[in-house]
Amino acid sequence: MTEKRDFISIDDFSNEEIEVLFVIADKMNQLLHRSHGVLAGHLMGSLFLEPSTRTRLSFEAAMNRLGGRVITMSDAAASSFSKGESLADSVRIVSSYTDLIVLRHPQAGAARLAAEYAPVPVINAGDGGHEHPTQTLCDLYALRQTKGRLGGLKVILYGDLKYGRTTHSLALALVRFGTDVLCIAEPGLELPAYVRERLCAMTGTVEQGIRVVDENSVFSGKERQALLYCRDPQAWGIEDDRLKLDGVHCDAIYVTRLQRERLPKSETTLAQALPPIDARFLAHDAFVDAVVLHPLPRVDEIAHEIDGDPRSFYFRQAALGVPVRMALISFLLGHEMMRVERAKPRIFEERGKKRCQNPNCVIVSEGEYLLQRVWSDQEDAWHCIFCDEVL
Ligand code: CP
Fold first, then answer.
1. Is any ligand 1 atom within 6 A of the Cβ of residue 74?
2. Contact present, 278 and 305 (Cβ < 8 Å)
3. Which ligand 1 atom sits closest to the C-alpha of 56?
4. What's the gap in Å between 14 CA and the centre of ligand 1?
């Protein structure tokens, strides 16, 4: 019997596996409107304990288009979670009914926990403010379609980078593929430390705090603080920690909304401080060839006036979720093979009695039945296996 594969973190697939998956997605795109039934007889459990439009429906569309069937739980209040059933027990039960589980959950690390208890493959469809790796597959596939490659690009991540979980998985993937990432965050909503540390380790550099200067109009003459993750800062023309936007040729700008549902009470009054992406913004020379991506839903961070601009790719990006997820489901259910180098699995260890203190970590909400384990890519930093925060 082959070992089951889960997809919990973007780290679970190597670059080579992602590239092969995209070749399978190309094939799925061709088959989309034909009935082929390759997964007839398979059943997917779709557990969404947080609201969703795109992820749930594109996963369910993908499974249906492959000829499989779906059972859904989209309201935790109408399930036995509301009676206090643990996540571990719930996924054990759903595994006994289905061949694959897709889980969205409000706590960081919930999908990792589910994968430990489920004998069937588990896909992380978003775990709290932590990761959203299948959105990253859609984002990368959109970049590959528009730019023809995933490495050697310049991408701006723009908006709420702290609670916007899609940016965590995406930043790690982009830097791993050799693309430079410039992070322009809402003030106080920069990428979490555990992501930033890994980006620095991957680029082999220390984090570079810079000021983005625009003498024209994009930032209304103000300087914006930003963080740059790249192997060659000279390629961005940075002088004295200042980056002149006029000299940049940006390939993509990836926008996220303020994730109000995740802001702690102390931050709920935060107003959007960054200007929206609108026609004036896109008129800047830096963005002449830049595609605009967004995981959606949007609120007001992208003006409707640019929806018809050929650079606005966000609706097509969402549509690509179906062939990408068809490819992923087919692979995890053993219908497609990837004979390339696998991502190295993380080694989890028990270290002392210290437990994760992140109030949004699943280990805090699920309680004592979970054993705290840690992983490390550097000897001095031990991360919680569920939420990746340093213990
Ligand atoms: N991008 C995304 O996760 O959208 P939904 O919340 O609608 O699934």
1. no
2. yes
3. 8
4. 24
How many residues in the chain?
Answer: 391
Cα 191 to ligand 1 centroid, rounded to whole Å:
19
The yes-or-no verdict on residue 15 having pLDDT over 80 is yes
Give dist(CA 320, CA 314) in Å, integer.
10
Ligand 1 centroid to residue 58 C-alpha, Å: 10
Nearby residues of 51 by Cβ (< 8 Å), 6 or more positions away:
none
Mean pLDDT of 36-58: 95
CATH topology of domain 135-318: Rossmann fold (3.40.50)
Which tokens is 328 given? Answer: 């992923």
Quick check: CB of 298 below 6 Å from ligand 1? no
Please give the Cα distance from 159 to 360 (Å, whole number): 21
- What fold, for 10-132+320-332? Rossmann fold (3.40.50)
3-state secondary structure of 32: coil
Record the pTM. 0.96
Q: Where are the domains of the chain?
A: 10-132+320-332, 135-318, 349-384
Residue nearest to atom 1 of ligand 1 (CA): 295
